[in-house]
Amino acid sequence: MSVSDATNASPVSTGDAEPPRLLSGAESILEALIDVDHPRKVAASRWAAEHLTDPSLAERDHSCTFWAEGWKRLADRGMFGLLADERHGGQNLELCAALLTIEGLGHGCRDEGLIFAMSSQVLTMQLTLQRFGSKDQQDRWMPHLLSGDAFGAFAMTEPNSGSDAYSLSTTAERTSEGYVLNGEKAWITMAPLADVFVVFATVNPDVGRWGITSFLVPGDTPGLIVGPNMPKSGMRTTPFANVRFENCAIPESARIGAEGAGASMFSSAMEAERGFLLASGVGALQRVLEDTVEFASSREQFGQAIGAFQGVSHPIAEIKLAHESARLLLYKAAALQQRGDASMMAAALAKLGASEAVLSGSLTSLEVHGARGYVTEYEVEREVRNALGGVIYGGSSAIQKNIIARLLGLPG
Ligand SMILES: Cc1cc2nc3c(=O)[nH]c(=O)nc-3n(C[C@H](O)[C@H](O)[C@H](O)COP(=O)(O)OP(=O)(O)OC[C@H]3O[C@@H](n4cnc5c(N)ncnc54)[C@H](O)[C@@H]3O)c2cc1C
To answer: What is the C-alpha separation between 73 and 69, in angstroms, rounded?
Structure first.
């Protein structure tokens, strides 16, 4: 299903002109690291607050409804091309610059499910296609993904293979014309709308990760069956479903790269997801902090603003610490990748630090808001629900700690 089918959105004003491109190299990295109010981020936040504020958000959150018009606005603003090649209409930004934009969107847009869906497509599905897809595969899909006319999904997890991702059991059996897929993928972001899936399957279950191969499968391929949109605790505006493959025949040209190369493609995608998918969440955490400071400054009990009580002000100071720490970890991981340096440790630290910061900061905010934090009307509890998934997707916090421990040389 395409966005243009789902919305009658008219072209969106692009608002203020884009800020100047970042300085290149070390200065751009330093700017991103130290400037919490970096001009690129502020511009994206202002644009999002103006163009991605939707009065029906609370209702859509309740009914798990995706905002197709918001998606189209993101596409018209060029957000799906942040990291894409110019030949496909992308901006081909340096990583730190792209993340500043995504962080700004997370700060300015209260529909976190929308920005999560966008970042997920850009950082996992599109990056895999860009890095490893053939010219034909890229030319067929990238322009449509960038224009918002097509949705993409990334399907690795299975009902019996989550953290242990390489134990997947979806098979790709060789035929004279290509492959036949059989198996099931679970918890796939954007699956209910996806026009194209990056799918991981094994061509030989006996050789473990060396059999894992990736494929680009159009959503309308016979035998590809998408389950119903699954309601979930947070990010409820992001469509999410299981996908079954029942004798799903695909041509050889659907394969991405070589047979057996899928595990390294997945690993590359996971490093991007770990390092950067939380960028919008870090932006959202700053908004949560600002909302909390405002509330604690105006809400009075015992004859004074509650923010004057140390029992309230110190936890808020801790949100600030969590936010700045998460930002530093995020941009350090981005800086290393931007420079072409090894970033596995940095990406695991960024994922762990940012997801835990967003969760703990949102919980503190809820507590500071008292009953107003707990009831749906004030929309503070939504921030907590949205933060919950961050410690699971892209590898749970325990899995990030496993990676960190292994890189530290600990036994196990
Ligand atoms: C919002 C959301 C979006 C998602 N989107 C996608 C998507 O687009 N594509 C996709 O492929 N997948 C997606 N997923 C799936 C996600 O990648 C998996 O949920 C995740 O990898 C964890 O797998 P699992 O849920 O099967 O949990 P399990 O692997 O069963 O883990 C359950 C618990 O056991 C712990 N555990 C497991 N192994 C170990 C270990 N070795 N050491 C210590 N603790 C361990 C985990 O930390 C966790 O607490 C999404 C998930 C969520 C929540």
So the answer is: 6
